[in-house]
Amino acid sequence: MREQLASALTDHDADYIEIRIEEAEATRIQYRGQELEDIGSTTSLGGNVRALVKGGWGFVSFNDLSRLRDKVELAVRQARLVGREESKLAPIDPVFDIVQPEVKKDPAAVPLEQKKKLLDEYNDIIWARPKIQTSTITYADGRKRVIFANSAGSYIEQPRVDLSARIIAVARDGDDVQQASLSLGSNGDFGFIENLHQQVAELAQRAVSLLSAPYVKGGQYTVVLDPVLAGVFAHEAFGHLSESDFVYENERLRELMVLGRRFGGKQLNIVDGAAISGLRGSYKYDEEGVPASKTYLIQEGVLVGRLHSRETAAKMGEKPTGNARALDYRYQPIVRMTNTYIEPGEVSFPDMVAEIKEGVYVKNWYGGMTSMEMFTFSAGEAYMIRNGSIAELLRPVVLSGNVFTTLQNIDAIGNDLEMNQGGGCGKGAQIPLPVSNGSPHIRIRNCLLGGR
Amino acid sequence: MELEHVLARAKLVSEEAEAFSVSRTETEALFQANRLKLVQTKETSGMALRLIKEGRIGFSASTKPDEGQLVAMALEAAPFGAQAKFQFPGIESYPKIEVYDPQAEVMSEEEMVELGQSLIDELRGHTPELVCEAAVIRNTTSVEILNSRGGKAAYTKSAFVIGVEGVLIRGTDMLFVGDSECSCHPLSDISAVIESARRQLDWAKDTVPAPTGHLPVLFTPHGVASALITPLTLACNGKMVFQGASPLGDKKGKQVLHPKLSIWDDATIEYRPESRCCDDEGVPSQRIPLIRDGVVLSFLYDLQTAGLAGTESTGSASRALGSLPAPAISSLIIEAGEAEFEDMLAEIKEGLVIEQLIGASQGNVLGGEFSGNVLLGYKVEKGRIVGRVKDTMISGNVYELLKEGIALGSKPRWVGSSLLTPPILCPKVAVAAKG
HEC string of B238-262? Predict the structure, then answer.
């Protein structure tokens, strides 16, 4: 394969060309209600070529791997149509590497029957609870081998293993339908989804309890976020804004996101990095063959770094960070987060709550979304806080904020960092990309909650 | 990999089988920061196999040309698979629905680039500080289905999309405007998209304090799409109904929404990108009344879900290459009313016009609830739009909001490829704003 790619890459009139080839296998199991609905495997083989001519990009993706050279020529021709200036890519040394997989309990080695048995147990736990109307369980594992070669002489073979599970319990009372869910994932350890029996039982219980829970009254509250939701907050509220492809060609955004700008208090530190090993967003090289790193985005409340591809790094005069990622061979790499988290502080969770007269404790995620300035994130579980104690369960709430004020309103950071690996990030059409988020408990003043 | 060969091999080892193939070629001209950034071509092709062995469904899919592996993988899954509650459709006669315009394939990359640049230039002509992204996309998709009962379907579809989005940044304030349009015909007239985005800029010119309380909210067609549609499409899905998770499931024949509301799913509209002669299992397409005059009439079914529920497929099966068919909407049509937009506005003493929410579908959508941040919305005072609101959330339950006192606009429009709706005025929606 190496020679084949090398020969397809030579002798083109382009500033830079890369080829990726991907071979993948995936298994999925889905239950809807008590019935197993879907079980089976898929395989795929595909690739792409990306070319850069005078600052313009051409991209071609395909399933048919024959006539690779023609595809390179098409990408170069398209790039030429776009190019009007000078090509800029941050320099990196050519790499030759064959990366070996690091899996703990390989999902591919677990027989289908055993996977099904485990999910059966979880489903039985949900259905054992009265008032449960239905359940949905989705499990997927996938492995792929990605081969990367570029015109500068890099050649990298990398394995990617990913596993995810989502368990949803739905309770119903008359016309009222409520749900509770659990999302988990790992970069290749089946052990992550074993021994969830207790959590699944709690999940089913929560769905039922929500039927009799009140709505929160919409307005501003002091909120305490659990590590899972605070991780989603870090991802949505700040992470996306640190992706340089939003920023690099927009003068005003560059001014707004100037390094050194204060976003939060001294206790706030936010990090992203694929070089942090063993998490769902971990890898050795990104999709441009750049080695992964660990990047401080915010240090002591001040913007100190951002996430880059080779192009955004060159155009902003900064170092590449290895954050160019693609969902699969059908897409060009774009700047993405990997493992994003808020570093732990010193406040204990009980102390954080003790100071609140009336507030809301929010846990677990349904999802989150950002428009850069504004963001929302939704909690799967919420409780009133009254006079320093956690009080009654509320229906799920959606929280909303403005990145330029909400980060400033974080007034306590806990000492209990946890990473959550259940998320899939979406940007453009590329969803769900495996990422992880994390944080300790955090407290935010004046947070806007939607409600009745 | 030939469909006939795969089907023939599968038939040797199973009772029933179906082979499905899809191939697509797409060309895109993408603009960032007011300039052309990327021209790309995507070619995808693959095949899926569904077989029934000892009454159970085995499924596999691949983009690799390996018939043997495809059959082997489906056979391996079958013993664990769901019990098949259906038969594949035999020879059917399909309605003739035009979804292919050869002209859509003819436009050159250079012409697409020119069209994209004109979207940006026209919009920036209104507000030069805008930083715009734009896309001009054309694609051609061919679908082929063959099954062991003699069923056979094939069609080719063209689609063309133009879209522009601009962001205006002042201090830390960001304003997003934009619109898009799609068709099976090539699009060269950008005036509707530009006019819509320019109107957004005009209405959002000033930012004003948002009100709080239970207020009248006028959802534009984009607003309808972003707040109200997800719960309704989920509730009409036969799978949700069969599971008992749809709040409409036991309401067939009952009044659940305002008598002015009629909602259809329609895959038979000519030259619309979501139309087709048959669904992804080869069942003929039809126009399906979901809600008529506020009364629940029917739900969307594929073959298996219909079999489980003891009813007929509505021709609503949709599938991505790597997954089993499942019921889905094609084009959702909300019937227009009689009110002029200006007259609906005039009725509002104090309220909002909602164009776009973020995060609205991330709560308990199954229960009909939405709650989102107003990405683009305007305050109305004494019947007039006075400016944009920010730091505001609106929340509600679609079954409560669409029950009483609503008004429907007289001019529907397409939002994206799969929704045709008029503006809708709801008299009392919870609005929470940062004080």
Answer: HHHHHHCCCCCCCCECCECCCCCCC
Give the pLDDT confidence of A245-302 residue by residue, as tens digits: 989 999 999 999 999 999 999 999 999 999 999 999 999 999 999 999 999 999 999 9
B residues 58-87 near A, CB within 8 Å?
A: 58-64, 66, 69, 73-74, 76-77, 80-82
Provide, as residue numbers in chain B, all residues whose Cβ is less than 8 Å from the Cβ of A36. 80-82
Give the whole-angstrom CA distance, residue B27 versus residue B186.
13
| A396–B364 C-beta distance less than 8 A | yes
The model scores a pTM over 0.90: yes
Residue B107, token pair as written in the block:
């436009």
ω into residue A432 within 30 of 0, thus cis? yes
CB A41 within 8 A of CB A26: yes
SS3 A375: strand
ipTM attached to this prediction = 0.93
State the Cα–Cα distance between residues A283 and A333, nearest whole angstrom.
15
**Selected residues 375-394 of chain A with any CB under 8 Å from a CB in chain B:** 375-378
The three-state secondary structure class of B32 is: strand
Residues of B in contact with A116 (CB under 8 A): 80
Structure-block tokens of residue B19 = 């082979």
- Calculate the average pLDDT of chain B: 96
Quick: pLDDT tens for B294-353: 999 999 999 999 999 999 999 999 999 999 999 999 999 999 999 999 999 999 999 999
Q: Which residues of A touch B43 (CB under 8 A)?
A: 60-64
Q: Search chain A and give the residue with CA nearest B358.
A: A369
What are the backbone dihedrals phi and psi of residue B68, each rounded to the nearest 5 degrees, phi first?
-60, -45
- pLDDT tens across B244-285, in order? 999 999 999 999 999 999 999 999 999 999 999 999 999 999
Does the beta-carbon distance from B358 to A332 stay under 8 Å? no
What is the interface size between A and B, counted as CB pairs within 8 Å? 255
**Cβ-based contacts of A397 with chain B (< 8 Å):** 363, 371
Beta strand B152-170 pairing with B131-147: antiparallel
B168 min Cα distance to partner chain A (Å): 9
Is any Cβ of chain A less than 8 angstroms from the Cβ of B284? Answer: no
- A249 to B33: CB separation less than 8 angstroms, yes or no: yes
Q: Is the pLDDT of residue A213 over 80?
A: yes
Count the helices and strands in chain A (H runs, E runs). Answer: 10, 24
Cβ of residue A425 closer than 8 Å to a chain B Cβ = no
Contact assessment for residue B29 and residue B135, using Cβ atoms and an 8 Å cutoff: yes
Residue A165: name the closest of A182, A177, A188 by CA: A182
Asked if residue B157 lies in contact with residue B98, where contact means CB atoms within 8 angstroms, the answer is no
Q: What separation in angstroms does the CA of B277 have from each of A121, A227, B139, B287, B324?
A: 43, 50, 18, 11, 20
pLDDT in tens, B349-372: 999 999 999 988 887 888 999 999
Nearest to A168 by CA among A5, A32, A23: A32
On whether any CB of chain B is under 8 Å from the CB of A34, the answer is no
Q: Which residues of B touch A371 (CB under 8 A)?
A: 174, 176, 358, 375
Q: Determine, for residues A116 and B80 on separate chains, whether the beta-carbon distance falls below 8 Å.
A: yes
- In this structure, the number of other CB atoms found within 10 A of the CB of residue A430 comes to 18
Token pair 């991907």 is found at A22
Nearest Cα of chain B lies from the Cα of A365 at a distance, in angstroms, of: 9
Q: Chain A residue with minimal CA distance to B305?
A: A37
Please answer whether residues B174 and B192 qualify as being in contact, where contact means their C-beta atoms are separated by less than 8 angstroms: no
| pLDDT score, position B1 | 58
Q: Could you read off the pLDDT of B204-230 as tens digits, one per residue?
A: 999 999 999 999 999 999 999 999 999
Distance CA A33, CA A31 (A): 6
